[in-house]
């Protein structure tokens, strides 16, 4: 798609989508600029939804849920609509990818190869899942049949981040609606563009009006209003740990169900017996994919001392040759960071590292590319896991190397973190691999592979990386209420309040 045509597809001012149509923002609604991080130019304006507007979206979602038009629709109907959404996302993947990269800075090749296929797959997966899963029957007690059914919960508030807007928001959205819920989606205020197109796709695919509503604005305004609304039953959130904590506190007061997928500081352990070339290429993907802005980034690269020099030689050659450039260029490997604030934050890690005696092996400073929030792919060598670069989530193209002697030490460094989202392990020793699988305190352990997401399996974190999981049965637990129904098989003597005289 040509940039000129794309421009015609972006409204000058994005409002909210309620009951199947765009709503004219209220007079006095605050306009927020949506910025292109590669040019620093304003792409369009975003009219912020205040609490009155959020309340109206929630009321529509609730009324639609209660109408039963979707919540009680046959599974085959919901499946058909989800598959149609999948088809339309595939058909319009190029346009959606272009919209996605404009405000995120994700390189187009990654949007095409990873983000859009994943968005399409999210709808396909839940379409298939709901048509295959059965409810349970317990008949161990010969007097009774007990059924356990799963019913939609009600209204889901879905709060999405800016680092992989479509892929992550559609995982929540597809799960919520597959199980019959209505929802109100709030994307990040920095990356609202693809959702304009997505709402129209949902309508064309046959999602009834009012099932999916979209509100826009900043977290403490629009997001907070959504979490505070008493008619929102579930909050599904992906974002920063501090925000997750605030959301959990507020949602807890309303006794809402909450799932949070938060930050990470994941270890990527490379043992001396590993396939070094594969481990190097995978360390590049884990550290610098998505411009390093991914919760599952392998940011702490733990190298066994005996192969550290050989590994670093190959790794640094590759890192120094990474192509930094415009996200729209298919050969770009590293695009800009999301915002000037994020650029400043990452720069502070580079500066602190220097002051802390951490050796900078590559990068460590903004790239010579202006305009845009570009940062050089960075590798630093720390002395101890307690240094700031090893403890805090950096969320940029920034990998910290530590060395270890024996495998127990590697596992202990990996687990010495407030986070516990994922871990990568490279070894050809089966015993070591199994030990890592047993002992790592993370929600996912990848052995001899870069990122692999199996949607049937749970994804989520230990410790401060989040609460709850999504994927397959875990999404079903989140988005449904379980109901137990017991029926006697035949009439039998009823119990008495007391023994008869
Ligand atoms: O994310 P926020 P920020 C991490 C990463 C990053 C840090 C901060 O380390 O540097 O978080 O990023 C909405 N009530 N991750 O501050 O604020 C917000 O509008 C309700 C990890 O930009 O968490 C957006 O829609 N909602 C990560 C969403 O939360 C609120 C992805 C995420 O933004 C809110 C992103 C509030 N009080 C950042 N405050 C991952 N796990 O992949 C904000 N929001």
Task: Give an overview of the whole structure.
The protein has helices at residues 3-8, 51-67, 75-91, 93-104, 108-132, 165-178, 193-205, 219-228, 241-253, 276-288, 305-320, 340-355, 388-391, 407-415, 430-439, 472-479, and strands at residues 13-14, 16-18, 21-23, 31-35, 42-47, 136-138, 144-152, 155-159, 182-186, 212-214, 234-238, 257-261, 267-270, 300-304, 359-362, 378-381, 398-404, 419-420, 422-426, 444-447, 462-463, 466-467, 480-488. The protein is globular. The chain folds into 2 domains: 3-262, 3-Layer(aba) Sandwich (Aldehyde Dehydrogenase, Chain A, domain 1), CATH 3.40.605.10; 267-447, Aldehyde Dehydrogenase, Chain A, domain 2, CATH 3.40.309. α6 links the parallel β8 and β9 (182-186). The model has no long low-confidence stretch (mean pLDDT 97). Strands 15-16-17-14-13-19-20 form a 7-stranded mixed β-sheet, with helices on both faces. A 6-stranded mixed β-sheet has the order 10-9-8-11-12-22, with helices on both faces. Strands 1-5-4 form a 3-stranded mixed β-sheet, with no helix packed on it. The protein is built from 16 helices and 23 strands. The protein has 501 residues and is of the alpha/beta class. α2 (51-67) runs parallel beside α8 (219-228), α3 runs antiparallel to α5 (108-132) and α10 crosses α11. It binds ligand TXE. Ligand TXE is lined by residues 159-161, 163, 186, 188-189, 218-220, 223-224, 227, 238-240, 243, 246-247, 261-263, 295, 393, 395.
